[in-house]
Amino acid sequence: MTVRVNKPEFNLREKLSELTTKFGLKGTELARAETVQDTRDLISSGRKNLVINGDLRIWQRSTSDTINNAASQSVKTADRWNNYHSTDGVVTESRSTDVPIGSGFYYSLKHEVTTADTSVGATQYHSHKYDIEGQDVAHLMWGTSQAKPITVSFWAKSSVTGDYGFCIRPGSSNDRFYADTITITQANSWKKYSFTVPGCLDGTWDKTINSGLQVQISHMMGTTYQTSSLRQWTSSLVVSPTSQVNWMETVGNTWYITGLQVEEGRNTTEFEHRPIGEELALCQRYCQKFETGFRVANAYPNVVLSSGDQIPSYPFTVSMRAAPSISPSTVSFSYDKWNATGGVAVELSAIITVSHFTLQYLSTNNGNASLDSGYFHGVSTESFTFSSEI
User: How far apart are CA 69 and CA 83, in angstroms?
Assistant: First the structure.
């Protein structure tokens, strides 16, 4: 017996069209991507955040400090977060647990006005700045015709509504600037901001161990550095809109920021949360801290040193960016199993080898010529911070 089955006619083109509609806009683009690189560009997959400590988990120096003219352009608290400050006002910078709900962040960087500046001079300013090492942004090829775009995103909130400045600029030259506006519409409310910046085709962009690219976020900015020509590259030193508020005008004004991410491409993606050990190691390229109370043995075991000299030497945990500065530059020692009978001269320095730096100190006791192995010096009253910030 033969059974015949009749199927209704259908339009093949319409059915194929239906296959794409359920993907959504980005899904359709992904389905049409011709290469693996096309797919990566669409979703910004892989290691992406060019910012170190963007989630503010690492605070090697301190969790609170004061920003004034004497501390202009220095990292004071959170690793890698720097400041531009030139104003009659004073700001307290500190670690805060006030973060956007559901964001996955645990800390934010808080600025609070402690001394107001009600009259902003034309060349005065107060800003966050974050410098990315030139070697880490060389692949963007800025300064060439193949320059790639970037997307910058972060969470922020302020007690003062109005317009603030956002700027991308070279870190080692003042020849190109791209400014935009951060608008706070609701006081004391977290909001995520995102800016897509076209690659810069000209200008001087460092590709060495110096600053290659800088993100600047302005709380207060004098008219000299304001512009109405936003969202375009310019050679004029402008970093903020003409509608910039004076956040410094009232004691108690606050500003919070967290989740800073700079990534290649035109898409804003979720923040890249890295393991804490990895994030700390990345920070230690620029700052390492030796805590108080560590003890050292004779640098030459089983050898009697002339005049009781000791020269212990310790490699840093991570090779630092450049020869670091040392704070404090002098140290205090205690002694175990040996009481110094003469003067003790102490020298603390960071010495360069072929490719990394080493902590070394020289301790001499000219009054004791028979100090031998098994005796100890111990650092008892100091901790050391070695800084190699950009």
Answer: 11
